[in-house]
Amino acid sequence: MSRILVVEDESHIAQGLRFNLEAEGHAVEIAGSGEDALQRLLEKNAPFDLMLLDVMLPGKDGFTVATELRKRQNFIPILMLTARGRPEDVLHGFESGADDYLPKPFNLDILVARVGGLLRRKNWLQNAPEAAPPPADEFSFAGKTVDFQKLQLHNHGQVFQLTVMETELLRYLIRNTGRPVARKEILEKVWDLKEDTDTRAIDNFIVRLRRYIEKDPTQPKHLLTVRGLGYQFVAEPEQQK
Ligand code: CA
């Protein structure tokens, strides 16, 4: 059973979410505002496995809530509920640290599936390594190690905590080492997004990963930009001529 925090001020939507998620066997609590959610997660340290976060909230909006959580080193998986037809919301959501998003109004079956997907990834990564497909739980390159279970990147003695989707993106690029991977392919394979999404959302994840991985993020050696296409992971750049 997973514990889910639903952050939504419109009570009929919140109750509908609670009903459907409880029917799936999850335990659900509702926070009516961003401030309420932050207090539970940061001050009371309440243990939740996932947060459903509406963007449109009174007081602090969903973007602010996600940003504050990440700033305070809280890496709970966040599924953000954005307004339909606003790609800038999606972009902003990823920038602020959301792991996935769903436009409102949403189809409840899709929402339940997305929640299940994020929870499964979290469990694969953290609790059940035997259920995880290869590669192994760790990958080392050029003095750095990605720990896929603990969602950590170790870089010469420094430890960076990653979000679920940062880890999944890194895993995908590492699996495809040496091959340029298109942004659209990344959205499909990592985020399971087939709809027409602004693929620039990926770029913000790359910017964050470069901060953890690259000695000089403006001169990347591992996470290379392939102009007009996407990105390519290089494990040992010094061996390349
Ligand atoms: Ca709302």
Give the arrangement of secondary structure elements.
Elements: E1 3-7, H1 11-23, E2 27-31, H2 34-43, E3 50-54, H3 62-71, E4 78-83, H4 87-96, E5 100-104, H5 108-126, E6 138-141, E7 144-147, E8 152-155, E9 158-161, H6 164-175, E10 181-182, H7 183-189, H8 201-213, E11 223-226, E12 230-233
Parallel strand pairs: 1-2, 1-3, 3-4, 4-5
Antiparallel strand pairs: 6-7, 7-8, 8-9, 10-12, 11-12
Helix pairs in contact: 2-3, 3-4, 4-8
Calcium ion is lined by residues 8-10, 54, 56-57.
The rough form would be described as: globular
Number of helices: 8
According to CATH, the homologous superfamily of the largest domain is Response regulator
| Percent range of helical residues | 25-40%
Distance between the termini: 51 Å
The H/E string reads: EHEHEHEHEHEEEEHEHHEE
**Architecture (CATH level 2) name of the largest domain:** 3-Layer(aba) Sandwich
The residue-averaged pLDDT reads: 88
Beta-strand fraction estimate: 15-25%
Number of strands: 12
Could you please say which CATH topology of the largest domain applies here?
Rossmann fold
What small-molecule ligands were found?
Answer: calcium ion
| Unreliable segments of 5+ consecutive residues | none
| Overall radius of gyration | 18 Å
Strand order of the largest sheet: 2-1-3-4-5
Judged by helices, strands and strand pairing, the structural class is alpha/beta
Number of discrete domains: 2
- The CATH class label of the largest domain is Alpha Beta
Sheet having the most strands? 5 strands, parallel
